[in-house]
Amino acid sequence: MGILEKISEIEKEIARTQKNKATEYHLGLLKAKLAKYRAQLLEPSKSASSKGEGFDVMKSGDARVALIGFPSVGKSTFLSLMTSTASEAASYEFTTLTCIPGVIEYKGANIQLLDLPGIIEGAAQGKGRGRQVIAVARTADVIIMMLDATKGEVQRSLLEKELESVGIRLNKHKPNIYFKKGGGISFNSTVTLTQCSEKLVQLILHEYKIFNAEVLFREDCSPDEFIDVIVGNRVYMPCLYVYNKIDQISMEEVDRLARKPNSVVISCGMKLNLDYLLEMLWEYLALTCIYTKKRGQRPDFTDAIILRKGASVEHVCHRIHRSLASQFKYALVWGTSTKYSPQRVGLTHTMEHEDVIQIVKK
Fold first, then answer.
1. Which of 20, 40, 111, 242 could serve as a FRET partner for 299 with CA atoms 20 to 30 Å apart?
2. Model-level pTM?
3. Tell me: the pLDDT tens digits for 61-80?
4. Residue 107 CA, distance from chain mean position
Protein backbone atom coordinates (compact mmCIF):
# COMPACT_ATOMS: atom_id res chain seq x y z
CA MET A 1 0.00 0.00 0.00
CA GLY A 2 1.58 3.28 -1.13
CA ILE A 3 1.62 6.56 0.81
CA LEU A 4 -1.11 8.07 -1.40
CA GLU A 5 -3.46 5.15 -0.68
CA LYS A 6 -2.72 5.41 3.07
CA ILE A 7 -3.48 9.15 2.97
CA SER A 8 -6.79 8.66 1.13
CA GLU A 9 -7.75 5.84 3.57
CA ILE A 10 -7.14 8.12 6.58
CA GLU A 11 -9.02 11.02 4.92
CA LYS A 12 -12.03 8.74 4.30
CA GLU A 13 -11.84 7.49 7.91
CA ILE A 14 -11.82 11.10 9.23
CA ALA A 15 -14.76 12.00 6.97
CA ARG A 16 -16.94 9.15 8.20
CA THR A 17 -16.07 9.51 11.91
CA GLN A 18 -18.58 11.53 13.91
CA LYS A 19 -17.07 14.37 15.94
CA ASN A 20 -17.88 14.07 19.63
CA LYS A 21 -16.21 13.62 23.04
CA ALA A 22 -15.79 9.87 22.61
CA THR A 23 -14.06 10.04 19.21
CA GLU A 24 -11.76 13.06 19.76
CA TYR A 25 -8.74 10.88 20.69
CA HIS A 26 -9.28 8.66 17.67
CA LEU A 27 -9.53 11.74 15.39
CA GLY A 28 -6.43 13.30 16.97
CA LEU A 29 -4.41 10.15 16.25
CA LEU A 30 -5.68 10.00 12.66
CA LYS A 31 -4.71 13.65 12.10
CA ALA A 32 -1.22 12.99 13.48
CA LYS A 33 -0.81 10.00 11.14
CA LEU A 34 -2.06 12.06 8.20
CA ALA A 35 0.45 14.86 8.90
CA LYS A 36 3.23 12.24 9.14
CA TYR A 37 2.38 10.64 5.79
CA ARG A 38 2.08 14.03 4.09
CA ALA A 39 5.53 14.98 5.36
CA GLN A 40 6.91 11.72 3.87
CA LEU A 41 5.21 12.52 0.57
CA LEU A 42 6.95 15.90 0.37
CA GLU A 43 10.41 14.44 0.95
CA PRO A 44 12.25 14.06 -2.34
CA SER A 45 12.59 10.50 -3.56
CA LYS A 46 15.95 8.84 -2.90
CA SER A 47 16.37 7.68 -6.50
CA ALA A 48 18.03 10.38 -8.58
CA SER A 49 15.48 11.63 -11.05
CA SER A 50 16.47 12.96 -14.45
CA LYS A 51 17.61 16.56 -14.16
CA GLY A 52 14.86 18.88 -15.35
CA GLU A 53 14.91 22.60 -16.00
CA GLY A 54 15.55 24.65 -12.85
CA PHE A 55 12.38 26.18 -11.43
CA ASP A 56 13.31 28.55 -8.61
CA VAL A 57 14.27 32.14 -9.34
CA MET A 58 16.95 34.06 -7.46
CA LYS A 59 15.51 36.38 -4.81
CA SER A 60 15.90 40.03 -5.72
CA GLY A 61 14.36 43.35 -4.70
CA ASP A 62 12.96 44.25 -1.29
CA ALA A 63 10.16 41.68 -1.11
CA ARG A 64 8.86 38.67 -2.99
CA VAL A 65 5.26 38.00 -4.01
CA ALA A 66 4.07 34.73 -5.58
CA LEU A 67 1.05 34.49 -7.89
CA ILE A 68 -0.82 31.24 -7.37
CA GLY A 69 -3.99 30.07 -9.07
CA PHE A 70 -5.63 27.60 -11.42
CA PRO A 71 -4.75 27.73 -15.12
CA SER A 72 -6.34 30.57 -17.14
CA VAL A 73 -7.37 32.90 -14.30
CA GLY A 74 -5.25 35.83 -15.56
CA LYS A 75 -1.93 35.49 -13.71
CA SER A 76 0.24 36.21 -16.76
CA THR A 77 -1.97 39.12 -17.87
CA PHE A 78 -1.65 40.57 -14.34
CA LEU A 79 2.16 40.23 -14.44
CA SER A 80 2.34 41.93 -17.85
CA LEU A 81 0.12 44.81 -16.64
CA MET A 82 1.96 45.39 -13.34
CA THR A 83 5.56 44.97 -14.51
CA SER A 84 7.63 45.64 -17.61
CA THR A 85 8.04 41.88 -18.11
CA ALA A 86 5.86 40.34 -20.81
CA SER A 87 4.55 36.92 -19.81
CA GLU A 88 2.90 35.01 -22.62
CA ALA A 89 -0.88 35.00 -22.17
CA ALA A 90 -3.34 33.05 -24.31
CA SER A 91 -6.87 31.68 -24.09
CA TYR A 92 -5.74 28.09 -23.48
CA GLU A 93 -4.65 26.49 -20.19
CA PHE A 94 -1.00 26.04 -19.12
CA THR A 95 0.37 28.87 -21.27
CA THR A 96 2.99 29.47 -18.57
CA LEU A 97 5.15 26.39 -18.01
CA THR A 98 7.93 27.78 -15.83
CA CYS A 99 8.40 30.53 -13.23
CA ILE A 100 8.52 34.03 -14.76
CA PRO A 101 9.77 36.89 -12.55
CA GLY A 102 8.85 40.57 -12.89
CA VAL A 103 9.47 43.67 -10.76
CA ILE A 104 6.81 46.11 -9.50
CA GLU A 105 8.21 49.53 -8.65
CA TYR A 106 6.00 51.08 -5.99
CA LYS A 107 6.73 53.81 -3.41
CA GLY A 108 10.44 53.48 -4.08
CA ALA A 109 10.49 49.73 -3.41
CA ASN A 110 11.25 46.97 -5.88
CA ILE A 111 8.80 44.11 -5.31
CA GLN A 112 9.60 40.86 -7.12
CA LEU A 113 6.46 39.29 -8.58
CA LEU A 114 6.60 35.62 -9.60
CA ASP A 115 4.19 34.29 -12.21
CA LEU A 116 3.93 30.57 -11.44
CA PRO A 117 2.36 27.88 -13.65
CA GLY A 118 -1.29 27.04 -12.91
CA ILE A 119 -1.99 24.58 -10.10
CA ILE A 120 -4.38 21.67 -10.66
CA GLU A 121 -6.18 19.55 -8.10
CA GLY A 122 -3.77 17.06 -6.54
CA ALA A 123 -0.79 19.41 -6.94
CA ALA A 124 0.43 18.56 -3.43
CA GLN A 125 0.93 14.96 -4.58
CA GLY A 126 3.07 16.22 -7.46
CA LYS A 127 0.53 16.44 -10.29
CA GLY A 128 1.36 19.00 -13.00
CA ARG A 129 4.66 20.10 -11.42
CA GLY A 130 2.57 21.13 -8.41
CA ARG A 131 5.30 20.41 -5.88
CA GLN A 132 7.80 22.74 -7.52
CA VAL A 133 5.19 25.50 -7.79
CA ILE A 134 4.31 25.18 -4.10
CA ALA A 135 8.01 24.99 -3.09
CA VAL A 136 8.64 28.37 -4.77
CA ALA A 137 5.51 29.79 -3.07
CA ARG A 138 6.96 28.84 0.34
CA THR A 139 9.86 31.27 -0.21
CA ALA A 140 7.60 34.28 -0.89
CA ASP A 141 6.69 37.02 1.62
CA VAL A 142 3.07 37.28 0.45
CA ILE A 143 0.95 35.01 -1.72
CA ILE A 144 -1.53 36.50 -4.18
CA MET A 145 -4.17 33.88 -4.88
CA MET A 146 -5.69 34.64 -8.29
CA LEU A 147 -9.27 33.43 -8.57
CA ASP A 148 -11.80 33.52 -11.38
CA ALA A 149 -14.72 35.62 -10.08
CA THR A 150 -17.17 33.51 -12.11
CA LYS A 151 -16.17 30.37 -10.14
CA GLY A 152 -14.26 31.80 -7.19
CA GLU A 153 -15.58 29.88 -4.19
CA VAL A 154 -14.78 26.39 -5.51
CA GLN A 155 -11.29 27.43 -6.61
CA ARG A 156 -10.52 29.15 -3.33
CA SER A 157 -11.36 26.15 -1.14
CA LEU A 158 -9.43 23.74 -3.42
CA LEU A 159 -6.31 25.91 -3.47
CA GLU A 160 -6.43 26.46 0.30
CA LYS A 161 -6.65 22.69 0.77
CA GLU A 162 -3.64 22.10 -1.52
CA LEU A 163 -1.50 24.69 0.28
CA GLU A 164 -2.66 23.50 3.70
CA SER A 165 -1.55 19.94 2.94
CA VAL A 166 2.03 21.05 2.19
CA GLY A 167 2.37 23.09 5.36
CA ILE A 168 1.57 26.63 4.15
CA ARG A 169 -0.83 28.34 6.57
CA LEU A 170 -2.57 31.36 5.07
CA ASN A 171 -3.43 34.45 7.17
CA LYS A 172 -2.80 32.56 10.42
CA HIS A 173 -0.31 33.23 13.19
CA LYS A 174 2.01 30.67 14.75
CA PRO A 175 0.27 28.81 17.63
CA ASN A 176 1.43 30.09 21.01
CA ILE A 177 2.63 26.71 22.30
CA TYR A 178 5.98 26.16 24.02
CA PHE A 179 7.39 22.77 23.02
CA LYS A 180 10.79 21.34 24.00
CA LYS A 181 12.01 17.75 23.85
CA GLY A 182 13.56 16.06 26.88
CA GLY A 183 12.91 15.44 30.59
CA GLY A 184 9.75 13.29 30.78
CA ILE A 185 6.33 14.45 29.57
CA SER A 186 5.20 17.57 31.41
CA PHE A 187 1.99 19.23 30.27
CA ASN A 188 0.71 22.65 31.36
CA SER A 189 -1.64 25.32 30.09
CA THR A 190 -2.19 28.96 31.05
CA VAL A 191 -5.72 28.99 29.58
CA THR A 192 -8.73 26.67 29.69
CA LEU A 193 -8.39 24.16 26.84
CA THR A 194 -11.57 23.18 25.01
CA GLN A 195 -10.07 21.31 22.03
CA CYS A 196 -7.04 19.47 23.49
CA SER A 197 -6.50 17.44 26.64
CA GLU A 198 -3.39 15.97 28.29
CA LYS A 199 -4.30 12.47 27.13
CA LEU A 200 -4.71 13.59 23.51
CA VAL A 201 -1.38 15.48 23.60
CA GLN A 202 0.37 12.33 24.91
CA LEU A 203 -1.24 10.18 22.19
CA ILE A 204 -0.09 12.59 19.46
CA LEU A 205 3.44 12.73 20.91
CA HIS A 206 3.60 8.91 21.05
CA GLU A 207 2.56 8.74 17.40
CA TYR A 208 5.69 10.81 16.64
CA LYS A 209 7.77 8.52 18.93
CA ILE A 210 8.35 11.37 21.40
CA PHE A 211 8.29 10.15 25.02
CA ASN A 212 10.11 13.05 26.72
CA ALA A 213 8.81 16.56 26.11
CA GLU A 214 7.77 19.76 27.82
CA VAL A 215 4.50 21.23 26.50
CA LEU A 216 2.93 24.53 27.55
CA PHE A 217 -0.25 25.84 25.89
CA ARG A 218 -0.52 29.65 26.09
CA GLU A 219 -3.71 29.74 23.99
CA ASP A 220 -6.61 27.41 23.22
CA CYS A 221 -5.28 25.49 20.20
CA SER A 222 -6.70 22.60 18.18
CA PRO A 223 -4.92 19.22 17.75
CA ASP A 224 -4.00 20.28 14.18
CA GLU A 225 -2.17 23.37 15.47
CA PHE A 226 -0.34 21.27 18.07
CA ILE A 227 0.79 18.86 15.31
CA ASP A 228 2.08 21.89 13.34
CA VAL A 229 4.23 22.87 16.35
CA ILE A 230 5.68 19.33 16.64
CA VAL A 231 6.48 19.07 12.93
CA GLY A 232 7.96 22.58 13.01
CA ASN A 233 8.35 23.16 9.24
CA ARG A 234 5.14 25.09 8.71
CA VAL A 235 5.20 28.47 6.96
CA TYR A 236 2.76 31.15 8.14
CA MET A 237 2.24 33.81 5.50
CA PRO A 238 -0.23 36.53 4.56
CA CYS A 239 -2.40 35.88 1.51
CA LEU A 240 -4.46 38.23 -0.66
CA TYR A 241 -7.42 36.68 -2.48
CA VAL A 242 -7.72 38.48 -5.80
CA TYR A 243 -10.91 37.91 -7.82
CA ASN A 244 -10.21 38.61 -11.49
CA LYS A 245 -12.72 38.95 -14.39
CA ILE A 246 -15.28 40.97 -12.40
CA ASP A 247 -16.53 42.45 -15.69
CA GLN A 248 -18.28 39.09 -16.30
CA ILE A 249 -20.41 39.02 -13.12
CA SER A 250 -23.22 41.14 -11.63
CA MET A 251 -22.66 44.20 -9.41
CA GLU A 252 -24.25 42.43 -6.42
CA GLU A 253 -21.77 39.55 -6.74
CA VAL A 254 -18.82 42.00 -7.05
CA ASP A 255 -20.03 43.76 -3.90
CA ARG A 256 -20.31 40.44 -2.02
CA LEU A 257 -16.80 39.32 -3.03
CA ALA A 258 -15.23 42.71 -2.25
CA ARG A 259 -16.60 42.62 1.32
CA LYS A 260 -14.91 39.30 2.16
CA PRO A 261 -11.86 39.49 4.46
CA ASN A 262 -8.43 39.68 2.71
CA SER A 263 -10.12 39.99 -0.70
CA VAL A 264 -9.72 42.41 -3.62
CA VAL A 265 -11.77 42.43 -6.84
CA ILE A 266 -10.07 43.41 -10.12
CA SER A 267 -10.38 43.09 -13.86
CA CYS A 268 -7.13 42.71 -15.82
CA GLY A 269 -9.00 42.94 -19.13
CA MET A 270 -10.55 46.32 -18.32
CA LYS A 271 -7.78 47.44 -15.91
CA LEU A 272 -10.16 47.97 -13.00
CA ASN A 273 -9.10 48.47 -9.34
CA LEU A 274 -5.40 47.62 -9.91
CA ASP A 275 -4.19 50.66 -7.95
CA TYR A 276 -6.17 49.57 -4.87
CA LEU A 277 -4.63 46.08 -5.15
CA LEU A 278 -1.14 47.64 -5.06
CA GLU A 279 -2.08 49.61 -1.91
CA MET A 280 -3.33 46.42 -0.24
CA LEU A 281 -0.19 44.55 -1.29
CA TRP A 282 2.00 47.26 0.27
CA GLU A 283 0.01 46.94 3.50
CA TYR A 284 0.39 43.14 3.58
CA LEU A 285 4.13 43.30 2.86
CA ALA A 286 4.50 45.68 5.86
CA LEU A 287 7.39 47.63 4.33
CA THR A 288 8.66 51.03 5.48
CA CYS A 289 10.66 53.67 3.56
CA ILE A 290 13.45 55.42 5.46
CA TYR A 291 15.20 58.46 3.96
CA THR A 292 18.77 59.45 4.83
CA LYS A 293 20.19 62.93 5.38
CA LYS A 294 23.74 64.27 5.44
CA ARG A 295 24.72 66.99 7.93
CA GLY A 296 23.84 70.47 6.66
CA GLN A 297 22.05 69.15 3.58
CA ARG A 298 18.45 68.47 2.62
CA PRO A 299 17.16 64.85 2.92
CA ASP A 300 17.58 62.62 -0.13
CA PHE A 301 13.99 61.72 -1.06
CA THR A 302 14.99 60.05 -4.34
CA ASP A 303 16.69 56.99 -2.85
CA ALA A 304 14.83 55.36 0.05
CA ILE A 305 16.03 52.50 2.25
CA ILE A 306 13.29 49.84 2.30
CA LEU A 307 12.97 47.84 5.52
CA ARG A 308 10.39 45.68 7.30
CA LYS A 309 7.92 47.23 9.73
CA GLY A 310 9.41 47.38 13.22
CA ALA A 311 13.00 47.89 11.99
CA SER A 312 15.34 49.74 14.35
CA VAL A 313 18.13 52.27 13.77
CA GLU A 314 20.58 49.34 13.92
CA HIS A 315 18.88 47.74 10.88
CA VAL A 316 19.28 51.03 8.99
CA CYS A 317 23.01 51.10 9.88
CA HIS A 318 23.52 47.53 8.63
CA ARG A 319 21.72 48.36 5.39
CA ILE A 320 24.01 51.37 4.73
CA HIS A 321 27.27 49.58 5.67
CA ARG A 322 28.01 46.61 7.89
CA SER A 323 30.70 48.43 9.90
CA LEU A 324 28.55 51.50 10.59
CA ALA A 325 26.81 50.10 13.70
CA SER A 326 30.17 49.63 15.51
CA GLN A 327 31.17 53.27 14.85
CA PHE A 328 27.69 54.62 15.73
CA LYS A 329 27.50 57.51 18.23
CA TYR A 330 23.88 58.70 17.92
CA ALA A 331 21.28 59.45 15.26
CA LEU A 332 18.89 62.34 14.65
CA VAL A 333 15.43 61.30 13.47
CA TRP A 334 12.62 63.41 11.96
CA GLY A 335 9.17 61.83 11.50
CA THR A 336 6.25 60.08 13.16
CA SER A 337 8.35 57.74 15.34
CA THR A 338 9.67 60.63 17.44
CA LYS A 339 8.07 62.86 20.08
CA TYR A 340 9.69 65.97 18.59
CA SER A 341 11.77 66.61 15.46
CA PRO A 342 14.67 66.13 15.32
CA GLN A 343 15.06 63.68 18.21
CA ARG A 344 18.40 62.23 19.28
CA VAL A 345 18.06 58.43 19.43
CA GLY A 346 20.12 55.28 19.97
CA LEU A 347 20.45 51.99 18.07
CA THR A 348 17.27 50.45 19.54
CA HIS A 349 14.87 53.20 18.38
CA THR A 350 12.10 51.79 16.12
CA MET A 351 11.68 53.56 12.79
CA GLU A 352 8.37 54.28 11.06
CA HIS A 353 7.30 54.83 7.45
CA GLU A 354 8.91 57.87 5.74
CA ASP A 355 11.14 58.84 8.68
CA VAL A 356 14.31 60.81 7.93
CA ILE A 357 17.56 59.79 9.68
CA GLN A 358 20.96 61.43 10.10
CA ILE A 359 23.66 59.19 11.61
CA VAL A 360 26.56 60.65 13.61
CA LYS A 361 29.70 58.50 13.95
CA LYS A 362 32.18 58.40 16.87
1. 111
2. 0.75
3. 788 888 888 777 777 787 77
4. 22
